[in-house]
């Protein structure tokens, strides 16, 4: 065993290039696996652990205090299936008024806010609240905000908030509820007009229907913890199909490149094998030498890959943890590191086993006499056929070179194909995401937003650059089943105008009393097309029938017509964009969505309006952190896979130039220039890149058509027709050319070395 180890160490030091390639391939592959598995564990793990630690409520129910006493509600804690309960806590939906000056936004977003009276204790049986900063409310006029309402760029402690009933509270702390049972908490006795009695339950069967607990009681709203869990984890789960696809592709490319490298090491090491056998090494020992040769750089590369994967996964999981406000682990779980290390290294060793066994079985005499020579008669017919063409002789020689070693050529083509598939998949995913965001955010329809001040009319008619103006109004409303305010958006004018929205299912608005929502709204609210959703604003309720789903920016938006919104607000007639909202304490947000003529700059248009005293801004906004992470992962993993594919090409060219060193010497002795030798090598790789591109293109298209709907489905979205058919023929041509680019870039350095080889040295090589 000691002799095997010493021989393997010597071979590793001697073959530095192949050792480096194996290390890099294993590094990228292991890092990809750690990142994918780490995110999978992060998405499914921390929320459930935090939920158990905080004794989260499986079911949150609000009861009508006008129809049931606190004692009757408290008695529900003894219902069958209830293992623990908290409450009843008095609650009230208060309203945050909108700041009258659009240039000075209020401390809190306008709309309804659910406030609950609670005395917080560390041993609360259900929904133990966690203090993020400050302290708990203990005196009159103090309030603690939930983290959903407390994402400030400054410290909010000590700031005051005023509600539409005129009451003012001082923020004394920021709290966290794992089940998001409320948006704010106050001390008992602080609510002047409580409209609910909140009960929190832990159930033996978390999926049990609410009716088993609320039967016979006047429940006004109930919410399962599964809703909060989905909201907390959907940002991560959307990324998982994409990571799994890249993880599988990374492993496949790694297997192919490792097989290429190891088999090439065996072929180019015939003389080394003969020397080992002449020194008394058995076939098993020779096989062991080659396995250890792979294991040493494999271990080094895998360990570095684990470190890199932990850093990347930590960055991503921290961002995801911030998105649902959970403490995120400082690193990836140890079992993920162990699984990735052993799995990837096992793949490398198993891949190396076949050529290593082959090396052990080579007879000593054959190995010693073979040297680096290759069988000259292979692919002779192809070479002669190419010689009869009108192609330049260096090109025809290069095109015939891959046929001399068909096994190595097949592995190289496959590696390039997976690299092209990765590029195609990433390009398609990027285009689909961009198209989705453009449709959801009305990028092609709305370029400028104008705030319609009620004290002075806003007229954009005839203004240079104006193509279309749509008057809209917004209102924050409460919808049963949602633990946060829902935005109601209404358009004035022709109700049949879709204003750029892309429909997914059903139809657009046809008249008053109808609504169009996004697919996440249906999933969260447990609704379907044709159902009725009840929205409440300042105690006024309106029933809207859902007639269709569209791509809507945000999952909590309800699109309806102008008459439906104004009736919900208690107005007798539709308000004009330039009209004051009247005596209501909370003002309705009124906006003009402006579409511009081609060539008009949104920034210049908005600046001109501002100069005239009209508040306006470009509609386009920066990407959210989740989108930045996803696009960053796209770029990073695509570069990783193409790098691995390029390393496979690099290794192939190194081996080919070594095998054909004598042939290149003959060419040079016959007058071939270094440029012609370079052409021979690059032509051989260009044809492999072309074939790999033609194979990789359909693979990438298939991956895109499978992964994109899977990503959308995990986020509760249904993609409309057209978002997958985003590959015009020029883009497909570029994907094929990417194969040639990968091949040429991987071949450039060793091809340059081959062209500069000295004739005498090449002729002496064996």
Average pLDDT level = 77
Task: Say how many strands there are.
Answer: 20
The share of residues in helices is 40-55%
Estimated share of beta-strand residues: 15-25%
Q: What is Rg?
A: 34 Å
- Individual helix count: 22
Would you write up a description of this structure?
This protein has 766 residues and is α+β, with helices and mostly antiparallel strands. Helix content is 49%, strand content 17%. The chain contains 22 helices and 20 strands. The strands form 2 sheets. Strands 1, 2, 3, 4, 5, 6, 7, 8, 9 and 10 form a 10-stranded mixed sheet that branches. Strands 11, 12, 13, 14, 15, 16, 17, 18, 19 and 20 form a 10-stranded mixed sheet that branches. Helix 2 packs antiparallel against helix 7 (240-268) and helix 7 (240-268) runs parallel beside helix 18 (625-659).
Question: Brief description of this entry?
Answer:
With 766 residues, this protein is an alpha+beta fold.
Which characteristics define this entry?
ten-stranded mixed sheet; alpha+beta; 17% strand; 766 residues; 49% helix; 20 strands
Task: Describe the secondary-structure layout.
Blueprint: H1 2-14, H2 16-44, H3 46-53, E1 59-63, H4 70-74, E2 82-96, E3 111-117, E4 130-134, E5 142-146, E6 160-162, E7 168-176, E8 184-186, E9 196-203, H5 211-214, E10 219-224, H6 225-237, H7 240-268, H8 270-278, H9 283-323, H10 334-361, H11 364-370, H12 380-387, H13 393-400, H14 406-440, E11 448-451, E12 466-477, E13 486-491, E14 503-506, E15 514-517, H15 519-525, E16 532-537, E17 540-550, E18 557-561, H16 562-568, E19 589-596, H17 602-611, E20 616-618, H18 625-659, H19 661-669, H20 674-714, H21 729-755, H22 759-764
Parallel strand pairs: 3-8, 5-7, 13-18, 15-17
Antiparallel strand pairs: 1-9, 1-10, 2-3, 2-9, 4-7, 5-8, 6-7, 11-19, 11-20, 12-13, 12-19, 14-17, 15-18, 16-17
């Amino acid at each position: 065993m000691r002799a095997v180890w010493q021989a393997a160490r010597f071979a590793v030091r001697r073959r530095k290039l192949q050792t480096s390639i194996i290390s890099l391939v294993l590094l990228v592959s292991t890092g990809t696996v750690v990142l994918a598995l780490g995110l999978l564990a992060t998405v499914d793990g921390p929320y459930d652990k935090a939920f158990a630690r905080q004794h989260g409520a499986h079911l949150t129910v609000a009861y009508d205090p006008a129809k049931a006493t606190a004692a009757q509600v408290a008695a529900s804690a003894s219902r069958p299936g209830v293992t623990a309960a908290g409450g009843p806590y008095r609650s009230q939906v208060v309203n945050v008024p909108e700041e009258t000056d659009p240039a000075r936004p209020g401390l809190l977003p306008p709309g309804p806010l659910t406030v609950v009276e609670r005395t917080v204790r560390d041993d609360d049986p259900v929904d133990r609240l966690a203090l993020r900063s400050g302290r708990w409310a203990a005196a009159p006029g103090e309030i603690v905000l939930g983290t959903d309402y407390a994402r400030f760029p400054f410290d909010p402690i000590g700031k005051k908030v005023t509600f539409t009933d005129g009451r003012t509270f001082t923020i004394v702390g920021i709290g966290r509820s794992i089940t998001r049972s409320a948006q704010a908490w106050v001390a008992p006795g602080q609510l002047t007009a409580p409209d609910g009695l909140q009960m929190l339950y832990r159930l033996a069967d978390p999926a049990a229907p609410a009716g088993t607990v609320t039967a016979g009681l006047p429940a006004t709203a109930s919410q399962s913890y599964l809703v909060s869990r989905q909201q907390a984890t959907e940002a991560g789960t959307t990324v998982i199909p994409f990571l799994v696809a890249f993880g599988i592709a990374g492993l496949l490319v790694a297997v192919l490149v490792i097989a290429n490298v190891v088999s090439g090491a065996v072929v180019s090491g015939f003389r080394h094998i003969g020397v080992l056998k002449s020194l008394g090494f058995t076939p098993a020992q020779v096989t062991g030498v080659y396995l250890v040769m792979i294991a040493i750089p494999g271990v080094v590369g895998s360990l570095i890959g684990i470190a890199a994967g932990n850093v990347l996964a930590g960055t991503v999981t921290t961002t995801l943890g911030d998105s649902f406000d959970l403490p995120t682990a400082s690193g990836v779980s140890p079992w993920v590191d162990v699984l990735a290390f052993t799995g990837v290294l096992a793949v490398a060793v198993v891949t190396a086993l076949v050529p290593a066994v082959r090396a052990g079985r080579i007879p000593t005499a054959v190995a010693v006499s073979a040297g680096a020579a290759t069988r000259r008669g292979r692919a002779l017919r192809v070479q002669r056929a190419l010689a009869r063409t009108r192609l330049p002789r260096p090109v025809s020689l290069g095109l015939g070179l891959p046929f001399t070693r068909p096994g190595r050529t097949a592995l190289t083509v496959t590696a390039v194909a997976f690299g092209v598939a990765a590029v195609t998949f990433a390009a398609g995913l990027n285009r689909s995401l961009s198209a989705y965001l453009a449709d959801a955010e009305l990028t092609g329809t709305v370029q400028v937003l104008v705030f319609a001040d009620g004290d002075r009319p806003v007229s954009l008619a005839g203004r240079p650059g104006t193509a279309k103006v749509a008057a809209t109004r917004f209102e924050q409303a409460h919808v049963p089943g949602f633990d946060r305010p829902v935005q109601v958006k209404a358009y004035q004018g022709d109700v049949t105008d879709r204003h750029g929205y892309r429909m997914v299912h059903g139809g657009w608005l046809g008249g008053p009393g109808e609504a169009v929502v996004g697919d996440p709204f249906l999933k969260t609210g447990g609704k379907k097309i044709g159902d009725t959703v009840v929205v409440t604003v300042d105690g006024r309720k309106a029933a809207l029938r859902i007639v269709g789903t569209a791509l809507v920016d945000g999952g909590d938006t309800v699109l309806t017509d102008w008459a439906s919104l104004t009736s919900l607000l208690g107005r007798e007639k539709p308000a004009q964009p330039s009209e004051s909202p009247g005596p209501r304490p909370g003002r309705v947000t009124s906006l003009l969505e402006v579409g511009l003529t081609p060539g008009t700059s949104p920034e210049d248009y908005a600046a001109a309006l501002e100069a005239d005293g009209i508040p306006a801004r470009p509609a386009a906004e920066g990407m959210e952190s989740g989108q930045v992470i996803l696009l960053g992962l796209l770029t990073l993993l695509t570069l990783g896979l193409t790098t691995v594919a390029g390393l496979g090409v690099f290794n192939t060219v190194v081996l080919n130039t070594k095998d054909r060193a004598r042939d290149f010497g003959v060419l040079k002795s016959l007058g071939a220039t270094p440029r012609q030798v370079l052409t021979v090598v690059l032509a051989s790789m260009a044809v492999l890149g072309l074939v790999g591109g033609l194979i990789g293109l359909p693979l990438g298209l298939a991956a895109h058509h499978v992964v994109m709907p899977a990503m959308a489905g995990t986020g509760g979205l249904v993609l409309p027709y057209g978002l997958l058919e985003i590959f015009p023929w020029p883009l497909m041509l570029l994907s094929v050319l990417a194969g040639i680019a990968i091949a040429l870039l991987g071949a450039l350095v060793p091809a340059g070395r081959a062209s500069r080889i000295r004739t005498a040295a090449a002729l002496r090589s064996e």
